[in-house]
């Protein structure tokens, strides 16, 4: 029944579990680190909250909790109240937030995404999750049934330092920490009994229409009857796969060489590798940029098109969260194309940096004798506008006016970069395409105050 549960007392003291978690944490967490527990109110996160509350002074970390109300269960409000009360009793700061879960093919996946997004909005050094040994076994089986590769079968590590997806905040991302990942659910239940803990039961955990619940309630118990210790065995297999995944990453770094930091993969490099190593290299780049892994079939199709299409063909292969494109004898992994944000004219009024929502940032570096003359820019209002097509400017005196399209092609910009590069106007006159060309009549003379425009998309 959905609601709260209370465990009867057991002779087990739970000291071993506290020692186990403390041993794990002391090699990861430093004094002063901020730990944010994702607190559902279920038995796993309740036990973890209790253990962390006992360890925080010894290890010197700060502890808080966040309860995410998915607004799915009719008991959701009672669970939130329970979580706040439990944290209050332990002296742990707790917030409860509501999220809206998108309805679709996988309500489990949508709820997880909404929950993680809510946790990521709170400043912390570690987001602490209560996944345990049984959860790890279920995850390995789920990934196996999905046909996952080595990375998928590696399951959930103790610590995962997330690479933020391209286009999101680059620094300060909290790591995911799972202190109970080697602890069985039976051990957790014994601890709860030893301390007479109360928790809530989510009625959706009984619904075996969800594959994970089916594995938990029907499949793993039957496997354990024939194969005692199967959960620990699956967890050990995951650790072996994680080791293999690290070796594959090391191989990809060796293969990438100088391309590893550039994010652009020369076609000659891809052609020099075996098909297996080429796919491993692409998977490495995708994982490094924080995107979900595409299917093996889509990855294979991307490589086929990139290597076999004619030289002037436009290559854009959908890999799910990203696209594989080819330009200038190299492969580029980019966020999947979306409808471009309309750009209205934006006025520049002397700022050193001007953000254009949905497009990027224009930087105007102050200098003398190079760039755009500040005196000339005062002749009329200066605006930043999107390209409309057919624009022309004259980069040099005595030379013909050039189309912006040709200038962009000569500059070697990829088509997707050209589409997101704005133009700078003084009144109705095009004076500059940042980083590409400027009209000679607006170029600064010797020692004249000026600005050098540069553009950063995103």
Short description:
By secondary structure, the chain is α+β, with helices and mostly antiparallel strands. The protein has 3 domains: 3-238, Rossmann fold (3-Layer(aba) Sandwich), CATH 3.40.50.620; 257-335, Chorismate Mutase Domain, subunit A; 346-457, no CATH class. It has 16 helices and 23 strands.
Q: What do these coordinates show?
A:
The chain has helices at 15-26, 43-59, 76-90, 107-120, 133-145, 150-153, 185-194, 211-226, 230-256, 259-262, 267-272, 275-288, 296-308, 374-377, 404-410, 415-418; strands spanning 3-6, 34-38, 62-69, 94-98, 126-128, 159-160, 175-177, 198-201, 264-266, 316-318, 322-327, 330-335, 346-348, 353-356, 360-368, 372-373, 382-385, 392-393, 402-403, 423-426, 429-433, 437-438, 449-457. It is of the alpha+beta class and 458 residues long. The chain has three domains: 3-238, Rossmann fold; 257-335, Chorismate Mutase Domain, subunit A, CATH 1.20.59.20; 346-457, no CATH class. It has a six-stranded mixed β-sheet with strand order 4-3-2-5-7-6, sandwiched between helices. Strands 13-17-20-21-22 form a five-stranded antiparallel β-sheet, with no helix packed on it. A hairpin with a 3-residue loop joins strand 14 and strand 15. Helix 2 (43-59) packs across helix 7 (185-194) and helix 5 packs across helix 8. The relative contact order is 0.09. The model is unreliable at 8-13 and 164-171 (pLDDT under 50).
């Amino acid at each position: 029944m959905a609601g709260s549960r209370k465990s009867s007392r057991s002779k087990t003291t739970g000291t071993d579990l506290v020692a186990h978690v403390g041993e794990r944490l002391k090699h990861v967490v430093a004094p002063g680190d901020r730990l944010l527990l994702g607190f559902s109110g279920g038995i796993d996160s309740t036990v973890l909250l209790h253990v962390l509350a006992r360890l925080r002074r010894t290890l010197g970390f700060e502890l808080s909790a966040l309860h995410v109300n998915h607004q799915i269960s009719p008991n959701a409000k009672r669970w939130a109240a329970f979580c706040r009360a439990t944290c209050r009793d332990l002296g742990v700061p707790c917030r409860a937030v509501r999220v809206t879960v998108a309805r679709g093919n996988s309500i489990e996946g949508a709820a997880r995404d909404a929950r993680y997004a809510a946790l990521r909005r709170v400043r912390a050094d570690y987001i602490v999750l209560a996944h345990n040994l049984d959860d790890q076994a279920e995850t390995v089986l789920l990934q196996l049934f999905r046909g996952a590769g080595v990375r998928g079968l590696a399951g959930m590590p103790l610590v995962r330092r997330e690479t933020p997806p391209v286009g999101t905040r680059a620094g300060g991302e909290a790591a995911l920490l799972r202190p109970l990942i080697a602890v069985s659910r039976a051990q957790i239940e014994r601890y709860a009994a030893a301390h007479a803990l109360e928790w809530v039961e989510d009625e959706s955990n009984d619904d075996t229409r969800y594959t994970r619940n089916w594995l938990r309630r029907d499949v793993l118990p039957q496997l354990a009857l024939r194969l005692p210790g199967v959960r620990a065995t699956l967890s050990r297999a995951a650790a072996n796969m994680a080791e293999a995944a690290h070796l594959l990453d090391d191989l990809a770094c060796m293969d990438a060489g100088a391309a590893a930091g550039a994010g652009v993969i020369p076609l000659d490099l891809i052609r020099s590798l075996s098909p297996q190593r080429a796919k491993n290299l692409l998977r490495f780049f995708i994982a490094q940029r924080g995107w979900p892994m595409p299917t093996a079939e889509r990855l294979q199709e991307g490589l086929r098109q990139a290597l076999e299409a004619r030289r002037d063909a436009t290559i854009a292969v959908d890999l799910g969260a990203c696209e594989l494109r080819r330009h200038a004898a190299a492969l580029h992994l980019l966020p999947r194309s979306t409808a471009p944000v309309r750009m209205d004219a934006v006025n520049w009024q002397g700022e050193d940096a001007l953000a254009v929502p949905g497009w990027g940032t224009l930087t105007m570096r102050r200098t003398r004798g190079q760039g755009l003359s500040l005196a000339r820019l005062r002749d009329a209002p200066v605006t930043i506008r999107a390209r409309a097509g057919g624009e022309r400017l004259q980069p040099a005196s005595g030379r013909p006016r050039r189309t912006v399209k040709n200038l962009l092609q000569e500059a070697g910009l990829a088509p997707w970069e050209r589409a997101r590069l704005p133009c700078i106007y003084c009144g109705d006159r095009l004076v500059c395409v940042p980083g590409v060309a400027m009209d000679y009549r607006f170029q600064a003379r010797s020692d004249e105050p000026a600005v050098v425009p540069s553009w950063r998309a995103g």
